[in-house]
Sequence to fold (377 residues):
Amino acid sequence: MATNNLEVVYRGIFQRNVATKICRSVVLAARKQGRTGTTLGRYSDSPERNGIPAKWFAIVADDEIELEASMAIYYPPVVDATVVLDDTLLKGIESWGWDGMVPVNRRIKERGVLLVVTNQTQEELLEDVHVKDLAYKLVVTPGSASFSGLWVTKDDHTEARVLGALAQACPDLASLDKIKEILKDKAKQDSAAKAAKEIVTRVVEPGEGNPEEPFSFELPVWQDMADGLSVPAIPVGKGYHGGKEGFEPARNPVFKKYTTRTLRPITNYNLCTQCTRCWLYCPEGAYNITPDGYYECDYYACCGCAKCEEACESGDHLFMVPESAFTDNASTYDMWKKDPDAYQRWFEEKVALVVPRSHGYHHKGQYEEEIAKKGVS
Fold:
């Protein structure tokens, strides 16, 4: 008897529809092959809020007994394939609870598959993916991060393309023929078949990837726990950077929300009208008030939900830029105060990297045009 497992890592709420469709389709296709299976989800902080990472699983087994045995451990500790719907999640996931930052490839078995929807090259992806002590296959299916199905009814075929790529890269989960039967729609069937032919596969050897040690927490053992329970309240904030002017909220020193982020806000201080809206609408309290009345995003507290961009009173004062364009969480306000002209040039360079978020499939050839425009081979 055998069990095959799939996990789909996605941006909470924004990509849930796509993730669940992928997992359900894999299970339905497996059932057409005479096997059985089920799907389930694992949520993140405040279930799936603001694009924080979450997971959906598909478990496929030869019979009901094997499936029940697999389900007894809730979610699979080892998977045949991990699908990542947003390539910035490759930097690490699962900041909820006491897990710290968990490498996205942690659960993949030896010679298993890490399938990424991306317009980056595999070498660029490996700058983010943490080193693993087992060899695995890195598979790319070209495309942008999809928010299709959240606010609109259009479909950009991400589901079909991922399923086609999975059938080619990890046929133990489901065959391409059965996947096409499940999809039914001819256009989606064509997208799946095309994706199966065009996947790019690279074996990642042990030791390849990002050598950075993901941050973690030293958890107390039961002998160290004090009698009773005490939960200290978060203290009142203070002046900016401890000064007497401005304001800086007190924040949780442990929960690092920046690990959940796919986009980050940058502010054009040269045009900012100090309207307060970014500060007021931020659900994380990530904005500091500077002594001269500007609003600085503390990137260690920002989860990248884009509420500030939505709230900004002008369309050219604040932009959400892909997290892949940054290597640190340094203060943009400090950069601007040091050299406003240099900051303006930096700001314009970053804004040029802003990419549209896909909300629908528009016409044949759309993805080829996007890929050619980005120069991805």
In short: The chain is about 25% helix and 20% strand. Residues 16-32 form the longest helix (17 residues). The CA atoms of residues 33 and 178 lie 7 Å apart.
